[in-house]
UniProtKB/TrEMBL annotation:
UniProt cross-references to Pfam families, sorted A to Z: Glyco_hydro_1 (PF00232)
InterPro entries: GH, Glyco_hydro_1
Coiled-coil zones: none
Name of the protein described by the UniProt record: Glycoside hydrolase family 1 protein
Family: Belongs to the glycosyl hydrolase 1 family.
Keywords from the named record: Glycosidase, Hydrolase
Molecular function GO terms recorded: hydrolase activity
Length: 431
C-alpha cells in the first residue's frame, strides 16, 4: 500500500442541508415544498445529522479518518435578516469541538449551496447587497468560532452557476431541435432535475410567489448565473477572506470548484481550452491570496471537433450518469497545479452507486493517481470523499447513493460500508 505523510488529511464531506434535516429557513426548503416542485422528494429529517453528528463523527474517527469537511448552515445561524441565533452558533461550536476531541481536523464550509430564505427575497446571488450580507455572516461566525477552525472554505463550487447556465443553454438548444435530451446530471456535478419547459415555467412562477419576487429575479445558488452574478460570487469570496484574515490570520482560507477532467481528441482542443477558462482559469485573479484550493471532481468529459463525445452503451456509468473514470481526479489535479502553486485539498470526490464494490474500486484507483501527483511534487494535502453519509441529493432526492455510510431513514440507523474501512485503512497507513 502506498503510504502518505502523517500530516495528510484523509476524510469525508457533507453539506448541512443534505444531512441535517428540517432546515426550514432555507431557500431550498421553500423550493422543495412549492406546488410543481422540481424536487423529486422533500428533505424532511434528512439523515438527522443535526442531532446525530456525534455518532457520525465517531464512526468516521473510529474508521481511522482524521478530517471532516462539513458546512455551517447560514439559514440556521441568521434565520432572519440581521438576527443571529446564538443557540445555533453554539450547536456548531459543540460540533467543531467534538471533532477536535476525537482527533478530527474540521474543514468548515461557510456556504454550501443553501441560503437563507430572506436572502433570496433580497435579490439572492445576483445582487450586490449579498456581498455585504455574506461578509456580515462570515464576520459573526469567525468572531465566534474562528479559533476552532483551522481551514475554511468560503463558498462551495463557486463556479456551479456558470456550469448550470451552460447546460441550460445546451438543453434549450436541444429542445429547439427536438432531439433526445440527455439527463443534465451527466453534465453538471450536482443533483438537478431538468424537466419540460412548461413544468419549469410553473415551478418558477410558484417559486416567485413563495419568495414574494418576480420569478425572473429568482437567484438561488443553483440558478443559471450571469457574468454579473459570477462576479458577485467572487466579491463574496474576497470579502469573506478579508473578514476571516482580519479576525484570525492563522486560518487557512480557500474555496472549492466543480471541475471535470476535460480531455481533447484531435479537433477538440479549442473546446477544451474554452471550458477550462470558463470553469477555472478566469477565476485565478480572485483567488491568488488564498491559502489553498479545493478540487471537486467526479468524472471526465471527452471532446472532439463536433463537441462532447457521449459515452457508448458499454461505458460504466454511475447512478447520475457519470462515466466511471477514477483517473479523472489526477487529471484535474495536474491541470490545476499548472496554474496554482499553493496547497490543494480534494474537497469532494466520489460516485453515486448502490454497489459499494464500485466505490471501493474508485477510491483505490483514484488515490493511487493522487499519490502519483504528490510524488511528482504537487502539494496535495488532503482528500475528502463525498460523502460521509448517503444523503439528500438536491432535486434528485434520496435515490443516488454517494455515502461511505448507509442510512435506514425509517430508523436512522447507520450502516458503515466496506468503502469506509478501505479509506480508513489508507489513513491508518500514513507514516
Amino acid at each position: 500500500m502506498k503510504k502518505f505523510n502523517r500530516k495528510f488529511m484523509f476524510g469525508a464531506a457533507t453539506a448541512a442541508h443534505q444531512v441535517e434535516g428540517n432546515n426550514k429557513n432555507s431557500d431550498f426548503w421553500v423550493l422543495e415544498n412549492i406546488p410543481g416542485s422540481l424536487y423529486k422528494e422533500k428533505s424532511l429529517d434528512a439523515v438527522d445529522h443535526y442531532n446525530r453528528y456525534k455518532e457520525d463523527i465517531k464512526i468516521l474517527a473510529d474508521a481511522g479518518l482524521n478530517s471532516y469537511r462539513f458546512s455551517l448552515e447560514w439559514a440556521r445561524i441568521e434565520p432572519s435578516k440581521g438576527n443571529f441565533d446564538k443557540n445555533e452558533i453554539e450547536h456548531y461550536r459543540d460540533m467543531i469541538n467534538f471533532c477536535h476531541d476525537n482527533g478530527v481536523t474540521p474543514i468548515v464550509t461557510l456556504h454550501h449551496f443553501s441560503s437563507p430564505r430572506w436572502l433570496i427575497s433580497e435579490g439572492g446571488w445576483e445582487s450586490e447587497t449579498t456581498v455585504e450580507y455574506f461578509g456580515r455572516y462570515c464576520k459573526y461566525v469567525v468572531s465566534e468560532l474562528g479559533e476552532l477552525m483551522p481551514y475554511i472554505c468560503t463558498i462551495n463550487e463557486a463556479n456551479m452557476g456558470v456550469q448550470i447556465a451552460r447546460i441550460m443553454k445546451e438543453y434549450q438548444a436541444k429542445m429547439a431541435k427536438a432531439t433526445k435530451v440527455q439527463s443534465a446530471n451527466a453534465d453538471v456535478q450536482v443533483g438537478i432535475n431538468v424537466d419540460s419547459q412548461s413544468s419549469m415555467e410553473k415551478y418558477y412562477r410558484a417559486a416567485g410567489e413563495a419568495f414574494g419576487i418576480d420569478p425572473r429575479k429568482l437567484h438561488t445558488f443553483h440558478d443559471p448565473r450571469t457574468e454579473h452574478g459570477d462576479l458577485i460570487i467572487m466579491k463574496c469570496h474576497e470579502k469573506a477572506r478579508e473578514v476571516i484574515k482580519e479576525i484570525n490570520p492563522e486560518i487557512k482560507v480557500g474555496l472549492t470548484m466543480s471541475l471535470y477532467d476535460y480531455q481533447a481528441q484531435p479537433g477538440g482542443e479549442e473546446l477544451v481550452k474554452k471550458l477550462w477558462d470558463e470553469d477555472f482559469l478566469h477565476y485565478l485573479p480572485y483567488i491568488q491570496e488564498d491559502d489553498f484550493f479545493g478540487v471537486q471532481n467526479y468524472t471526465r468529459k471527452v471532446f472532439g471537433p463536433n463537441g462532447k463525445i457521449e459515452p457508448d452503451e458499454n461505458t460504466r456509468l454511475s447512478e447520475v450518469g457519470n462515466e466511471f473514470y477514477p483517473l479523472s481526479l489526477a487529471g484535474v489535479i495536474r491541470f490545476v497545479a499548472k496554474h496554482w502553486k499553493k496547497s490543494i485539498i480534494v474537497t469532494e470526490h466520489g460516485i453515486a452507486t448502490s454497489n459499494d464494490k464500485d466505490r471501493v474500486e474508485l477510491i483505490e484507483e483514484a488515490i493511487a493517481g493522487l499519490y502519483d501527483c504528490i510524488e511528482e511534487g504537487i502539494d496535495v494535502i488532503g482528500y475528502m470523499h463525498w460523502s460521509l453519509l448517503d444523503n439528500f441529493e438536491w432535486q434528485l432526492g434520496y435515490t443516488p447513493k454517494f455515502g461511505l455510510i448507509a442510512v435506514d431513514r425509517a430508523t436512522q440507523i447507520r450502516y458503515p460500508k466496506e468503502s469506509l474501512t478501505i479509506l480508513g485503512n489508507m489513513s491508518n497507513s500514513r507514516f
